[in-house]
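Q: Got a minute? One more chain.
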Amino acid sequence: MTREVNQAGVDLIRRFEGCRLDAYPDPGTGGDPWTIGYGATGPGIAPGVVWTQEEAEARLVEDIAQFAGAVERALTVPVSANEFAAMVSLAFNIGAGAFKKSTLLRLVNDGHFEAAAEQFLRWTRAGGREMPGLVRRRVAERQLFLTPGDE
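A: Always. Here it is, folded:
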């Protein structure tokens, strides 16, 4: 059973992904991957695709569970609910593969949580340039990661 992401993490993902019911090009590349709903990509998502709000909500639940599983499998140490949620948000945005190779994950697994928190701020570029929205998201993820407890 995969660990669930707390409400603070779900809210963070919702806020920064936003929801669009018509497919749109990646802001970093201006093309692939095409995106819809709350940051959903993959087969069947292309120009002209339109979803209902219900489809977007259902896919968000599936995607969060998928990334929560990837983060959980990559961790070798216990983490708080807030730390876990922040890492799931990061993985949701950068991809599970990039997360698994990240210095942030290595530092967490080595027990260096404060140094790991600073790594969120390194993931602010897309398409070769710094994106203001990614800067805001990483600051919010770092803040959640550093928030004590399991809120």
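A: The chain has a mean pLDDT of 95.
Q: Perfect, thanks.
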